[in-house]
Amino acid sequence: MRLITAVVKPHRLDDVKAALQAYGVHGMTVTEASGYGRQRGHTEVYRGAEYTVDLVPKARIEVLVEDDDADAVIEVVVKSARTGKIGDGKVWSVPVETAVRVRTGEQGPDAL
Amino acid sequence: MPNGFSGGDTAFVLISAALVMLMTPGLAFFYGGMVRVKSTLNMLIMSFIALAIITVLWVLYGYSISFGPDAFHGLIGNLSLFGMRHIGMNQLSGSIPVFAFASFQLMFAVITPALVSGAIADRTKFAAWSLFVALWGTIVYFPVAHWVFDTSQGWLAAKVGVLDFAGGTAVHLNAGVAGLALCLVLGKRVGFRKDPMRPHSLPLVMLGSGLLWFGWFGFNAGSALAANGLAGTAFINTQIATAAAMIGWLAYEKIRHGSFTTLGAASGAVAGLVGITPACAYISPLGSILLGLVCGALCSWAISLKFRFGYDDSLDVVGVHAVGGAAGALLIGFLSTGHAGSPAKGLFYGGGPAQLGKQALGVVVVGVFSFVFAWLIGKAIDKTIGFRVSEEVETAGIDQAEHAETAYDFSAVGASLSRALAPAPSPSTGDGTPAKKVDA
Description:
The complex is a heterodimer of chains A (about 110) and B (about 450). Chain A is elongated. The relative contact order of chain A is 0.31. Chain A is an alpha+beta fold. Helices cover about 20% and strands about 35% of the residues of chain A. Chain A starts with a strand and ends in a 17-residue tail after the last strand. In chain A, strand 3 and strand 4 form a beta hairpin. Chain B folds into 2 domains: about 375 residues, Ammonium transporter AmtB like domains (Ammonium transporter fold), CATH 1.10.3430.10; about 30 residues, no CATH class. Chain B is about 65% helix and about 0% strand. Chain B contains 16 helices and 2 strands. In chain B, strands 1-2 form a two-stranded antiparallel sheet. In chain B, a hairpin with a 2-residue loop joins strand 1 and strand 2. In chain B, helix 1 packs antiparallel against helix 2 and helix 3 runs parallel beside helix 6. The longest helix of chain B has about 30 residues. Chain B is globular and about 65 Å long. The interface between A and B is small, with 9 and 14 residues.
């Protein structure tokens, strides 16, 4: 199994969610996150003062998938999240040793 | 009741007193919404505590210093009314009972120090603030109220002839300048100019400004101390100038910074209320539109001065109250019609510069007096018990450290976790075991 983590623009979340569901992913965890990459945030003017906002709001999506699905799911996320502008975010995956469904005790791919 | 008593006037002034009382909670929310989430409660209580402290002092000696028989050349009242012991139930001040008048004036004494608190948001020890409220109220506000509001004895009002109907100098300039002195004594917040420090709840700011606007009709119209034409004049001018100032602020802000902000709308309304306060009984409705537009745009510009000069007037008390109060007081010298609350005519009505000179003198005298004593009181407190919280407390959040509470508990997981991690007493351990005993 692999854990795929995607950090994307918040306004792309609905499209990413729909694309993952269409692919057949059964569940996901979404959290509000903030951060920056190479674009290093931006400046804002409020009440007469200019500020650097270096932590930009993002949505973090986490999906557990079987090894064979990993590349395809990453592809789905990248396609549905892309706007082509800076700040589109990143997707990465890591191997996962165990997964257990709490209600039934099923383990491994059965728990997905 | 004795001769001269008016039931209508008394009813009006009592209701006005209650309206002005509501301005202090309104101010608390206006300021409370503007700070970051970690200092919300501290900001609220800094206003509320003024209701407690000033009320007690007012009974003891405040009313006597402000409105008692003059003790020295219109500078200060004597202490013959100490404890309000010798004021009779049916004793009149004009056409209303003395207790009605004293209640109305008390609410002004309460909100004035509360206004100062916005200049030193996020970083003030609560005990030090409470001490400042008591000392500044005693040394600065009570005497200044005697100068300006005691129209038969006070030196600025009765001898010099400064026109200040409801407190442009005595309340707003006075508080704004004290705010400047205090933010210089305390220094800048950690992260000033680097972190955005945006308001955590603009709905609270809007609610607060609405309550202030509502209460201000008592403040200004009530200052007629009678239900008469003068009160009507003050009432309508208050509404007009506030409306115009909101437009003035928003227009300046849109041209200068590109957005119409809700914070700008709220601040513009307050700037108009501040500006019309001294002038509401002396100028015309059209004059009120002009005054409002000027005060709105001027204060919108003035709040940027703190970045140019590097003082952390956190919630723009200087830019709105000192600048707006002074502007309103000075504009009387131009806009006074001569046939409303005072026979003195302003420059635009053929009155010459005489009244403007008096107004300028009032502004300078109150401004300098308040600045010097606020600075001295602030320094004295800072050198003894310390005026500012530690950097650690300021960064972590003053609410938890000073008050053992937080404003919002939205997260079922996060709330008990944050309380468990905090050093202060916690009402529950969060894991189902019985709550520890706390003194709350």
